[in-house]
Amino acid sequence: MPANSWPENDSYSELDPLNSLFSDLSDSEELEEETFTSVSLPSRFQGRRRKAALVLTIVWSGTIALHLVSWGTLFVLGLTTIIGIHALVIVFARPKRYPEQMQEDLPSVSVLVAAKNEESVIGRLVKSLCSLEYPEGQYEVWIVDDNSTDRTPQLLSELAQEYAKLKVLRRKPEAGGGKSGALNQVLPLTKGEILAVFDADAQVSPDLLARVIPLFQRENVGAVQVRKAIANANENFWTKAQAAEMAVDTFMQHQRTAIGGIGELRGNGQFVRRKALSSCGGWNEETITDDLDLTLRLHLDKWDIECVFNSAVEEEGVTNAIALWHQRNRWAEGGYQRYLDYWDLILKNRMGTRKTCNIFIFFILLQYILPTAAVPDLLMAIARHRPPILSPMTGLTVTMSMAGMFAGLRRIRQEKEFKISTYLLLLFQSLRGTVYMLHWIVVMSSTTARMSVRPKRLKWVKTVHQGKK
Hints:
Blueprint: E1 29-35, H1 48-68, H2 72-91, E2 109-115, H3 122-129, E3 139-145, H4 152-162, E4 166-170, H5 178-186, E5 194-198, E6 203-204, H6 208-212, E7 221-230, H7 237-258, E8 270-273, H8 274-279, H9 290-300, E9 304-315, H10 321-347, H11 353-384, H12 391-413, H13 420-437, H14 439-453, E10 457-462
Parallel strand pairs: 2-3, 2-5, 3-4, 7-9
Antiparallel strand pairs: 1-10, 5-8, 6-9, 7-8
Helix pairs in contact: 1-2, 1-11, 1-14, 2-12, 7-12, 7-13, 9-10, 10-14, 11-14, 12-13
């Protein structure tokens, strides 16, 4: 594991060593529940339940107090105004212009995929990744077979004979750490200055590397996330709504980075500078969302993360409510864990004022605190026969979501002239996506409550990829 470069008296040096916590995890699996015990965690990752319970108590008591004090409504209106101004600055920020070509020699690239039981998609994936447009000898493809029990090993062996760029690492049954463990294990074998990480169901265009790698010319760019798109977007309501969700996610990230705010990694289609990864300790094997954890550690270590629209990676969207529930609970818990783990470093303003303010407003306040506060707010509103006191903030959040979704869908089309029918279609897609996005209120509020009162439970359920286009 690379050494952490931060001074020990003001760092998260407790990350080293990152023990193999999740011995049966893989990148393509999602959280369910099963009790585990006797796990020795580094001190920074201990006490998550206690921290979550404290936050839950503060949020509930604070929300109830706002209903009881005379200035509660004015406080909420003032806070909503501040958030609204910040949102307007982000939405109307001029997007960054990124270099389209390297001004110097192209850096070497290692393309990494951790795969488990992916026989339905592995052939298409390897063919796509081994056909990228990049100078000969300047990129390699590594597939980490995470102890697959289907035909994945056999298929990889056959593909390795066909594609010279393909290299395969077979993990042993006792290997742990899930996706993070797989990536950490293969890292010493790779040679790329830039590490490109994809999921097994990824679909990319041949010019992806040529479009993305020039962004690393700026020395403080530690990582780049390309736009995620849903390959099976037309299948049903759930996949159509996820396509709109990805649009608003990329649009807001793109705009936030334009004002010096937070860019985030999304696991699939993420490019990381090896030097940056080494400086913050490698992939964390003690989190269930390695991309979100690495996002925060990169920013805390003074690296920037860019998010781009002009390149995309397609992936399969989940096709039913149950699969969506498992996936989003994992995302919500992993996102919440990182704030519980690194809260002290955030408060020390390690990222800088712009990023710290951005993370408090858009991530901690709107994504976690507001949904958690919705429950006591509703109960107090019913008890006192009055509207929920947080209604202005909730209304602003929903409006921001819909506006960002519309803008993101419009930007993806990249049409110079729009007809009225096109605007109406985008408006309908945004409305549908906004209704769909309300599920996050339930997911976030239930996740924060569950993490506060229940013992930590883990079980990982395979997400089956069908190889849909």
